[in-house]
Amino acid sequence: MPTDGSPVICPICHTKKTSHFFTLKNSPLLQNVFFLTEEEAKKARHVNVDFLYCRACHFVFNPQFLESEIRYTEEYNNNQLSSEKYRSYVDRLTERLIEHCHLTPDSTILEIGCGNGYFLFRLQNRLKCQAIMGFDPAYKGQYGMDQFIGRAYFAPLADRIFDLVIVRHSIESLIDNVFWQGVLSAMHGQSYLYIETTNLDYIISHQDMSLLCHEYACYYSVKALQRLLGRYLLELQHLELLFNENYLGCFFQKKLNMKRFGSVCQKVAEIVCQYKRVVIWGIAGRAISFLSHMNWGKKQVQFGIDIDHSKQGMFIPVTGQQIISPEDAASFGPDLVLIANTNYIDEIRKSFPVNCDYATLDGDHYVSNRKF
């Protein structure tokens, strides 16, 4: 903290709207390291912590956090599983994640800061899945999870993508661009990021200073989490208040990239322009909306195809193509079939006797019948 009285910049929103929040006295550098003798325990290093509050993003932080001196090893013991109540809480949370994130035995799961591995163990046991991974330097081999958990700090992974990334009570000392970029690289477009952390609003409303410690450099509100993760194009999808509102349980996903719509249209246009005889299969809302948006008349797409007899012989609104049967389309002999609904691509390719290429309107499926 500056000694000249100048304001401290918030590490999330970078404003100077920070003020004193609370001074915590004699806080151990690490809370959960215990000692064999009273003398050793009394010599444990401890510091006074001046927590600051940012009113712009509703966030509490310790600008003097001694990050370089925080080392999680096997001496660290934050086990709460002796309590039946806490075990029940973790078990209920397991079921909640399975339900909300649509997890199956084929799901891939990563937990960063997995502690003793119990939560991963419960997920693995419940789902019977093998594609799971955990990181924690303090892991001691509990619950038979050695093959899944690395005794190390998390680092960005090459070519590993997960359906669910879990970070429970591990972000309190992290405002680290490298860390969050690593999390992002481990997620595909539909992945969930589940974050669980101490609830700043609970601390304030209950005036509960016992939840403050040097080990936690950051105390988040929902607003602060949204602001922080919004930098990385992560969007809050669902929020739960957990464990008597002590904790926030937040489900994030990657934001929809609005720019992709234009790129998809361009991709399909680049495919279509390579062909002379093009038809589109499945004349309903998808096909009509796409053709109208692209302003594609009979020059680009000559016919529409539909198996509904009541549509055959009719004409598509706005763009004007006639709708024909699959049999008439086969006689026409297209060299490219656009498929309006990706769900039917296999059925259409198997039933259509023409040796032609196929593409879907999302641009993600572009195949040649000649290859099969």
The overall average pLDDT, rounded, is 91
Strand % is: 25-35%
Describe the global form.
elongated
**CATH class membership of the largest domain:** Alpha Beta
Q: What does the radius of gyration come to?
A: 28 Å
Q: Count every beta strand, where a strand is a DSSP E run of 2 or more residues.
A: 17
Give the low-confidence spans: none
What name is given to the CATH topology of the largest domain?
Rossmann fold
Please indicate the count of domains: 2
* Individual helix count: 10
Biggest beta-sheet profile: 7 strands, mixed
What is the end-to-end distance? 67 Å
Describe the structure.
The chain has 372 residues and is of the alpha/beta class. The chain folds into 2 domains: 84-200 and 220-254, Rossmann fold, CATH 3.40.50; 261-371, NAD(P)-binding Rossmann-like Domain (Rossmann fold), CATH 3.40.50.720. It is 25% helix and 25% strand. The protein has 10 helices and 17 strands. It has helices at residues 38-42, 84-100, 118-127, 177-185, 200-206, 222-230, 260-272, 285-294, 326-332, 345-351; strands at 18-28, 46-54, 59-61, 109-112, 132-135, 149-150, 162-168, 187-198, 218-220, 234-242, 247-254, 278-281, 303-305, 322-324, 336-339, 357-360, 366-368. The strands form 3 sheets. The chain has a 7-stranded mixed sheet. The longest helix has 17 residues, at 84-100. The chain is elongated. It starts with 17 loop residues before the first strand and ends with a strand. The mean pLDDT is 91.
